[in-house]
Amino acid sequence: MGVFVLCAWLLTAGLGGHLASVWIRQGGLRQRTPGVTRLPLWLGVGHVVLAVGGLAGWSAYAAGGVRGTAWAACAVVLIVAAFGFMMLLRRLPSSGRHSHGRRTAERHFPLTAVVAHGMCAGATVLLVVLGQT
Fold first, then answer.
1. How far is CA 102 from CA 26, 39, 81, 93, 105, in A?
2. Cβ of 118: how many Cβ atoms within 10 Å?
């Protein structure tokens, strides 16, 4: 089960890496003024850093079988999922006061990649949690 979860996590990470590269190529790092971006830098960086840390913890569990690292990875993946859900909600179109009609970097995300990343992430979270029961 541990290796299967690791494969799902790596697939999710690959899709997330693709989305991050699109965001960077479209100027996501330069869109830091209020109202220009809907994805704060702390949210994106936190999502990536925690996901990589959780993946490292799960890899350590898969390699050595130490259950403590699996539980830590389980806790981290739930936080990562919450951050990802916040990013998804911020990506949805709105007509709020910060909506200027500009095409922000995250608007360039291919919908299929966003859906695939979300589905793989959901499966990964489910598998990690089920792997701990």
1. 13, 14, 27, 11, 10
2. 17
Residue 17 to residues 10, 24, 93, 114, Cα–Cα distance (Å): 10, 10, 23, 11
Listed residue (44, 14, 13) closest to 31, CA to CA = 44
Structure tokens at 97: 């006061």
**pLDDT given at position 119:** 93
Mean pLDDT by 10 residues, the chain (133 residues): 85 92 82 63 89 90 86 90 88 60 72 90 88 70
Q: Identify the CA nearest to 76 among candidates 50, 56, 58.
A: 50
Q: How far is residue 11's CA from residue 57's CA, in Å, rounded to a whole number?
A: 16
Q: Specify the pLDDT at position 52.
A: 93
Q: Is 64 exposed, middle or buried (0-12, 13-18, 19+ CB in 10 A)?
A: exposed
**Dihedral angle, C-alpha 28, 42, 129, 75, nearest 10 °:** 160
C-alpha span between 77 and 92 (Å, rounded): 23
